[in-house]
Amino acid sequence: MPKLSVVIPFYGVEDYLEACLVSVRDQLLHDVEVILVDDGSRDGSRAIAQGFVDEDARFLLVTQENAGLGPARNAGAAHATGEYLTFLDSDDLLTARGYWTLVTTLEATGSDFAAGNALRFTDAAGTYQSWTHALPFATPARRTTLAERPDLIRDRMVWNKVYRRSFWERGDFAFPPIRYEDYPVTLRAYLEARSVDIVDEHVYLWRDRESGTSITQQTGDARNAAERFESARLVMDVLHAHDAPAEVTRRVASYFARVDLVSLAGTMVSAPEADRPGLERMACELAAMIDPREASDQTQVSKLIHTALRRCDLPFARALARWRNGGSKKTLVRDVARLRDPRAASEVAVALIASRTPQHPLKERRLRSSLHAVSTNAARIDVVIDTRLNPALARHATVSAQLIPSTSVRDERSSHVEGPSHGQAASPGMTHSPSDVGAVALQVTTRESMPWGVRLHLSAALGTRVDLGHYALDLRLSLPGGLQRWRGQVEGSPDVLAGPTRTATAPPRATRASIPRAGWVQPVTQPRAGLAVLAGDEVVLAGARLVSDAFVLALPAGVSALQVHRRAPIDPLDVVVTAGAVRLDPAEMFAGDAPINPVDGIHEAALLGIEDGERRPLLISGSAGPLEVSLPDGARVQLARDGRGRALLRKLPAAFGDV
């Protein structure tokens, strides 16, 4: 019996199918069966699928008349023999570690299914975070439930999950024969699971088709809208049948009112005239299903649309939908005036006044700033920040900058070591709520006017005032009299980070009674731009240089080896220290490894020093910017710093632009 069965239905995807199947074939979890379901495809997709079946015994081809994605998934699941079951859309991609990561956590926890984070991607723009997965997957969890994590209602899709096949068959799960078939099944699975695992690592790449032909992109199509309505109706049935927790019901109802109902209203006014009566009936029915007492988290516009459709006031709903689709406020006012409905006029007036109300002059506005350069010595920090603000305002603004400590400190030891492999799990995260207590003030030394705003040079004496932990850069600008104020945290690229310096006096460790060895001050950009103050025995400091297209690192006495910690399940490389140094051949560092995702093609590996059998993150002394070696195939390998200032190796493919 294979460990995992992967079901991939396909229809008319000859432009995407090969890349999808390659990403499955190259998974680092090898014990899989891949069930390809030809849903009556009329293009060259079947020939592509047959080629994989002929070359790889793990691939199986099943054929049926065109019945749609839901029935095709059901047909594939019926052929599954694996311990675990998953589904993949034929135009999407997987990260190489995706299935290994999800199966590994299920093996450890016994949960009924595991779900992972997802990226959106296009061939032209590359990858970016899927907005619907950003919140629910921001924090990982094991053996959790929907009642404990109601934010998971946003995770509607079936494809970023691995299920125990016993759980799937015990629940007799099946997809309905409609588009948007995922959510009724996914929500029911969340409600019925004894526990689920939430993985913050990106395991799935969801294609955003440039052609606009995917199901989720056809928002103006009447049939698409009708099946989205049917999916919502089935979801509401699932909620009621399972007596879902009140907070889950509230969030689902709010989401439907804010997203699905507004989308249906938009289609109601943009579809062909012949389709509009049916769409209007569905919109009124969906609005009636959504109890306004439960749908409490709405935007002002969605609340107006919901209210209008609940009373089936179609002229008012149409006017609002046309405005929501991009119409002008002037047109909205004219349309509502024609209705001669005082209630509608009053509601729109409130909405328009709210949309035009200027920000309160005493309320802080968001300040957008980026870290241009940062360096430290034993007693000082020097920072250069680029702030985007109207130059005329920036010229007269008063600047206030601080390094604000986090409210809690964690032991950072070996926190760069990832995953359940190699015998050590990652440390829990730090609480990053800033507190002004213990803040370090920075002084402006130079101010440069720029076309986009102002470049600020700031400096502060650190002395012995800093304790262990993270200090976030907090920047505030205000005009004379305080009538306009801006505040924001500073963003930054790791490539602007210089190496650490020793603290003037070793700071006390909050979690130990003993005094550690001399500490380090390391500029960071994660979790927020600022400083990390580390105890001396937390990390290993190394010097680095290029010698004959190899990285040579000088290490302190007592460090016996350097570990290139490639991402699990790839084994790490241990390089023995000789005469206080190690030599890393860039061409050998990622042999047998896989990129983080197949779109960007980037590899990364943390560097750890081994001292007395204990692994510690490596810091690199010296100036900002990576060391880089070009390989014969055009790829580049960098010795760089991550956002926490930790040393890593990064391999960029030949076609990849500068980072």
TrEMBL record:
Occurrences of domain Glycosyltransferase 2-like (ranges): 5-167
Listed SUPFAM superfamilies: Nucleotide-diphospho-sugar transferases (SSF53448)
Top-rank lineage group of the source organism: Bacteria
One matching Pfam family: Glycos_transf_2
GO molecular function: hexosyltransferase activity
Protein name: Glycosyltransferase 2-like domain-containing protein
Organism: Dermacoccus nishinomiyaensis
Alphabetical list of Gene3D superfamilies matching this protein: Spore Coat Polysaccharide Biosynthesis Protein SpsA, Chain A
Start and end residues of each stretch annotated as Disordered: 404-435
